[in-house]
């Protein structure tokens, strides 16, 4: 083999090695590629509200992803928005985990909505580090159909939000993250962000962000304010 042939062979091997490393990098779950979005996207879990489903890219809550629900205060009936999906998930014998809910969920209302209470688990981790560990382990376990958590006093770092998004994708779990309304001004890796507020006997929604779909739309939906007992706060 002469010098030119040796140079070409080495160059080809170097190129193949670079391509292999690139493919390994692109295969990681936290790398998003627009070209592959049509292959990766799966139909969502129906919200139970046809008007909302029509606005969502997957015609429902995104699977294996984080959905942020931004509310200024708890107890406006925000859980009612998730009830149809939670009922479906528990009826499929999958677990629904609530982490640090600010109020005790009203079990009779959940049962009337079809939620199987024996498939409901409530966790109260001690401290931010333990909470992050519990969230990540639950989401990526593969045993959790949906996880709901409420942001505490400490604002999560961007890297932690990304870890939870990746964990939800790995575990094929629905992750609903309740955050203060002021979080809307900060960027987020969540696949879907909804701003929520109470408007009489309705929930007012605005789509702030969704991957693969339009944003900015506003919607009003009926709510069920009896899903929490305001006289029994947890914190």
Descriptive overview:
- The chain has 235 residues and is an alpha/beta fold.
- Helices cover 32% and strands 26% of the residues.
- It has seven helices and ten strands.
- The protein has helices spanning 3-26, 37-40, 50-53, 83-91, 107-112, 127-140, 158-171; strands spanning 65-71, 95-99, 103-105, 120-123, 144-150, 174-180, 192-199, 202-210, 218-222, 228-233.
- Helix 7 (158-171) links the parallel strand 5 and strand 6 (174-180).
- The protein starts with a helix and ends with a strand.
- The model is unreliable at 36-40 and 228-235 (pLDDT under 50).
Blueprint (SSEs and pairs):
Elements: H1 3-26, H2 37-40, H3 50-53, E1 65-71, H4 83-91, E2 95-99, E3 103-105, H5 107-112, E4 120-123, H6 127-140, E5 144-150, H7 158-171, E6 174-180, E7 192-199, E8 202-210, E9 218-222, E10 228-233
Parallel strand pairs: 1-6, 1-7, 2-4, 2-5, 5-6
Antiparallel strand pairs: 3-10, 7-8, 8-9
Rg for CA atoms: 21 Å
Helix content, binned percent = 25-40%
**How confident overall, as mean pLDDT?**
84
Report the sheet-strand fraction.
25-35%
Note the overall shape: globular
Number of strands: 10
């Amino acid at each position: 083999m002469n010098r030119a042939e040796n140079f070409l062979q080495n160059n080809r091997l170097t190129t193949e090695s670079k391509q292999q490393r690139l493919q390994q990098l692109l295969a990681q779950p936290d790398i998003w590629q627009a070209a592959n979005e049509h292959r990766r996207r799966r139909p969502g879990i129906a919200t139970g509200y046809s008007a909302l489903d029509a606005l969502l890219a997957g015609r429902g809550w995104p699977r294996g992803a984080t959905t942020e629900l931004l509310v200024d205060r708890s107890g406006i009936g925000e859980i009612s928005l998730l009830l149809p999906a939670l009922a479906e998930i528990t009826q499929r014998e999958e677990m629904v985990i609530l982490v640090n809910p600010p109020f005790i969920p009203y079990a009779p209302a959940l049962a009337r909505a079809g939620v199987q209470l024996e498939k409901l688990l409530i966790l109260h981790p001690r401290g931010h580090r333990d909470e992050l560990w519990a969230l990540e382990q639950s989401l990526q376990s593969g045993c959790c159909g949906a996880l709901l958590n409420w942001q505490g006093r400490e604002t999560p770092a961007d890297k932690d939000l990304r870890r939870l998004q990746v964990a939800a994708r790995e575990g094929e779990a629905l992750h609903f993250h309740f955050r203060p309304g002021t979080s809307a001004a900060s960027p987020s890796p969540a696949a879907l962000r909804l701003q929520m507020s109470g408007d009489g006997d309705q929930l007012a929604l605005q789509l702030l962000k969704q991957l693969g779909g339009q944003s900015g739309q506003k919607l009003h939906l009926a709510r069920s304010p009896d899903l929490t007992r305001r006289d029994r706060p947890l914190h």
